[in-house]
Amino acid sequence: MGLELASYGTESYDEMADVDFSDSEVVSYVRDALKSVAEGDTDRYNQLIGVMHYTEGLAADEVALLVTSLQALSGVVSHVDITLHDALLSSIFGMSMWNYGPDVMVALVELIKSLAVSNGGFVDSCLDMLVRNFMPPKSFIGFLRQPWGCARKNEVLNRVHSALSDIAYLVPLAPLRLLPIILKRMPTMFDNEALLVMYVESMLRLESSAIGEFIGSTMLMAVVDRLVDLDVEIGWDEIIQEDSSKGIFHMELEDVEETADYVGKGESEFCRGTLSGLNFGGNVVADKLDNLMVLTCQHLESCYDEGRLTKVFDTLLHSFRITILNAYKSKFAQFVMFYACSLDPGSCAVNFANLLSDLFLCETHPPLTRMSAAAYLGSYLARAKFLSTSLIAYMLKRLVGWCYNYIQIHGGEVKSISPQAHRIFYSGCQVVMYVLCFRMSSMVDVPPLKSQLFQMPLEQILHHPLDPLKVCLPSIVKEFLRQAKAARLFTVSENFFSSDLLESDSSKAFGGRERLDMFFPFDPCLLKNCDRFIRPNFVYWSMVRTTYDDEASSEEEDDNDVLSEDARARSSDEHDIDLDEFEYSMNKMSITPRTSSKHGLTGLQASMRMPAKIRPSTSPESL
Amino acid sequence: MEGLKVSDANLVVYILPSKANRIPQALRGELSSLLFKFNEEFDGVVLVYDILAQSKNGKILPGLTPYFGVNVRAKLLLFSPKPDMLLEGKVMKLRKESIHVIVLGFSYATIAEEDIRGEFRYKIKHGEEVFGSTSHKRHVIKVGSMIRFLTKSFDEEILHISGSLIPANTGSIGWLDKHMRESSEVDRTNKKNREREAHGSRLINEATISLDNEYPPKKSKRSKMVE
């Protein structure tokens, strides 16, 4: 210790001029200043408050004075009264650590810790002050990009977090008091992005800390809530044009070309094209969501590395169930679940699938929840690369079993199809068909699963008077039947291929106002930054080998010559699909790059082009 | 340690109808929400509860929310420190200005410098901060010691105790207990000695009184003389 104050010369610090003070003298000075307030003598007290208000551009001696005053106060906290010294306390709690250098930071943090443990009445204010320091003052935000700003950020946050754990060590109930403070101060989705991201970063850091044992799960749930808030703000209309005439397999927006300024880039980048159609507000929201999701995914990754993922996953699952599942057509927030499952395919992934299937199969849940769970299950089983085929087969068996029971109960009395009344059944059927579109080929390749598949009473379900083939989404039905025919799963009558199954009204009817018939939650993620977490574990339609591939492949070879030179030139190690997001002929199912799937993911794909383009091409290649 | 008591409580616990098929769990949930909070009615912080009996029927509360009330008989362990009670806790942090103690793992106490009796001096021994007694070399308080202290006040909201080490029977528990034992043994032998001495000293006192007459007389005598 032993900080000697330099002499001040002509400074106007009355009693402190021209003298070197020892620590104990300063401490007694401050103690007397505090005590004298009760007697009405506030001169020294006010001077002390004045010192607390030093902010930027401090000279060395001002810094020293501030540091000494803070240190002296730490020594006399037992003399600080919550009412008498209210003004001093507010100045102290109003200080932002971001404005100061390390010396002042250390002294300030020590003072805050001393205050918190000395008197129960100060605990909440001290915790509040520390939580407020999770974020810099608005004026500082611009400096964050600079190296010194970044360094300052690390200094502040390290000290704040260690102060919180020190306080929790001495005040056992501090985490309990901390929780509501953190939740109250959490920035809303309308706040500045840098602040929001920094705060969430601190929240997640707390989750990993020792205090996290008590408050971690609530922190995580609050973060997921914020993700959902942001998600809901992004409008669906801006992303996808809802048109049931487009086959959903066309709408694989994994690589959508933008306009001319996107010339010839080899990589498949996520289209800003689709999101650029959003109004300005929406784009900002998408960026915020994107950055928060990156943070969350990184946090989950570190949880996995620390071996904590299973416990954290329980919280995530609970949070998913109460927020994301019932949020109206959540767009991207659910990818957090997807990523968590991908980290631990052995147990977390299976738990998620079990939750969804249990929700669907349990009769006591409300219909919307069940249908939503079905949509999630279908999309998940189809898109998750890390799921074993046997698990998928097992899930399908459960679903098919339920559908079969359903038709037994609802026998043959159906006079006219009422999609609304049997919507759960139709969503179940649609899920089965959708999953099989993606997975039939791989199941057929494995003999035990193939026989399981063939033993499922699919034909009876699909040809039942309730007629799911007419009610479910036409594009799915088409693709499914095509694959079923190729696999010789059951007999399919030819007229299904020729007739225009445009019964969008029927599927609309069962989908209801929410259009749950067209809800595929794990369709490719459009958020640029967090996509890199998802992509390695994601099944794109282009990667799927269908059952008619093998038969048709020989015919398709010729068609590939139609490929443009530009398209060929675009090489990438990811699957490039050249997709047009506009109108296609309704009866065409997509794209499927047959050759590429054989050679893995490299190579180029051709899309079956319509002779007439309705819009001018935005893609470099033009035929 | 003082401040702990066991109480019998007759409670009515109100439960939502959705939990009607899992009453024991619901009761435990409700009672658990009382834990580690100061409760005015019980006049203490509930630490442990033990449900002894519950009624078979519950009376439905009239009104908008149809809670139903289940009568429960429970035993509660309450912590309610009052001023001048002696409490025990473990020292977590020690500074010149204060000692910080944790009591029963959930409550914390601070003993400020001015509440530590002069006998104890702050010093740094072998690189460790300690409070050492000046009169008894073995009596040392450091981080990790269990100490007994007097309660000055109790903040019910945050469960903070303001403590004092002024009374002579406060300090490191290990040393105090040992010292009490030794001093009680010493006392027994001393008692006999004292009795012997008392007899002897009566004779000596008479002699000293007569001697003291010349030297500054005792006040009482003086006053007698004055009167």
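qc> Chain B has two domains: 4-79, 86-176.
qc> done
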